[in-house]
Design goal:
- Helices cover 21% and strands 42% of the residues.
- By secondary structure, it is an alpha+beta fold.
- The radius of gyration is 29 Å and the shape is globular.
């Protein structure tokens, strides 16, 4: 109880200023005002110390992020040693046959070890694993820097997934048109796994980031109403039909300058989340996936609370149809403790084109959303939006 009282006292705002009595202040010659002397009171506050529990959580987060990198490096080194031993074995066999006068039996089988182990050429010609390589899977794991493609891709109907997008939506409650935009993406930094961008397997470290901005086209200069910033560092793993991600992400919400000038009495909130996250995707079949994730904020401000849950399903045909493309649809539910787990529901459907080599996806379609505001600065708003747009997924 004493600790709580001391923290509340330190956190209380200091007195504004000590002002001398107005009656005793001297008059300015020729004027009726009095000079009021002020002296600002500055108070030093000690920085907040991390508790043992917070330190423990941050240490576990660092271990989770770095463990797969260490594992991948060790396994890659072991596999490299095995290949060297295999080369020495072939050389010894060749020498034995030459000494016996029987020649090198490997000349007849035309084995070129370097070509056989040059998986870069295989990956380049096949474009990855699965249907691109004629049914032959590349099951060998290798350590790669800046790999092509992702093991865990963004959800089609996820509201805060890093991507490039522009959508024009009609706000039914406020009877206005808004533009929801996103400028961002997700890239792989390193991988220990198979080559290619089409459903690769193994471990991968990803970096993600995006700005989700809302514009009001009916206002002068297409006013920026608000923007949410997000970045994260994620470990991902995929094996056969199951993909898993875990790591850290940060999100903070900000208001546009033009909006603040037009709404001087608007009370800004400092909405911030620093959260540990874990999620999984399961392929029901070649065309359909279900997914779910949970996040817990290590630090939260501005009305943000620790827990949030997200789950949904999506249909994405994998068959290539060239320039004709193929249909898609997705549904996502986002539950946040901020609103006593009252969820936001997002539905999206349309037509998409898929990159055979890059694994990237271009989509056009319609969108329907109902729930808390997509901009976290407007914490007390609920929205019902309908419209359409264009999306580019990594």
């Amino acid at each position: 109880m004493k600790i709580q009282t001391r923290i509340a006292t330190d956190a209380s705002p200091p007195a504004n200023r000590d002002t001398t009595s107005l009656a005793s202040a001297p008059l300015i010659p020729g004027r009726s005002e009095r000079i009021v002397a002020t002296q600002p009171q500055r108070r030093w506050q000690s920085p907040k110390r991390l508790t043992i529990g917070e330190c423990t959580r941050y240490c576990w987060l660092a271990v989770l992020l770095l463990a797969p990198i260490k594992k991948g490096y060790c396994e890659a080194e072991t596999r490299s040693n095995n290949i060297e031993n295999f080369q020495e074995l072939i050389d010894s066999w060749s020498m034995d046959h030459q000494l016996l006068g029987s020649g090198n039996p490997f000349d007849q089988s035309a084995i070129d070890l370097e070509s056989w182990l040059d998986l870069d050429d295989i990956a380049e010609s096949s474009g990855g694993v699965g249907e691109n390589n004629g049914g032959r899977e590349n099951s060998l794991y290798h350590f790669q820097i800046l790999p092509t493609g992702l093991l865990y891709r963004s959800y089609l109907a996820g509201e805060k997934e890093p991507r490039m997008m522009w959508s024009a939506l009609y706000d039914v409650k406020r009877q206005r048109t808004i533009w929801e935009t996103a400028l961002g993406g997700r890239v792989g930094l390193m991988r220990y796994g198979t080559f290619g961008a089409i459903k690769p397997q193994g471990f991968q470290l990803d970096l993600e980031g995006a700005v989700f901005a809302r514009l009001i086209p009916s206002e002068p200069s297409t006013m920026l109403e608000g923007a949410d910033f997000r970045f994260g560092l994620l470990n991902t793993w995929r094996e056969d039909r199951l993909a898993v991600k875990w790591g850290y992400y940060h999100v903070s919400s900000h208001l546009g300058d033009e909006f603040l000038l037009a709404n001087l009495d608007f009370e800004r909130i400092n909405y911030v989340r620093d959260a540990a996250i874990i999620g999984l995707i399961f392929d029901m079949n070649d065309d359909s996936q279900v997914y779910g994730e949970v996040a817990n904020a290590l630090g939260a401000q501005g009305g943000a609370k620790p827990w949030e849950f997200q789950f949904g399903a999506q249909y994405i045909p994998v068959k290539k149809r060239g320039l004709n493309g193929s249909p898609y649809l997705g549904a996502n539910t986002y539950l946040r403790q901020d609103f006593d787990f009252r969820g936001g529901f997002n539905f999206i459907a349309g037509w998409n084109w898929f990159g055979d080599r890059s694994g990237e996806r271009l989509r056009i379609g319609m969108q329907y959303y109902r729930g808390p505001s997509l901009q976290y600065s407007f914490f007390d708003r609920s929205e019902r939006l309908i419209g359409g747009g264009i999306w580019f997924d990594y």
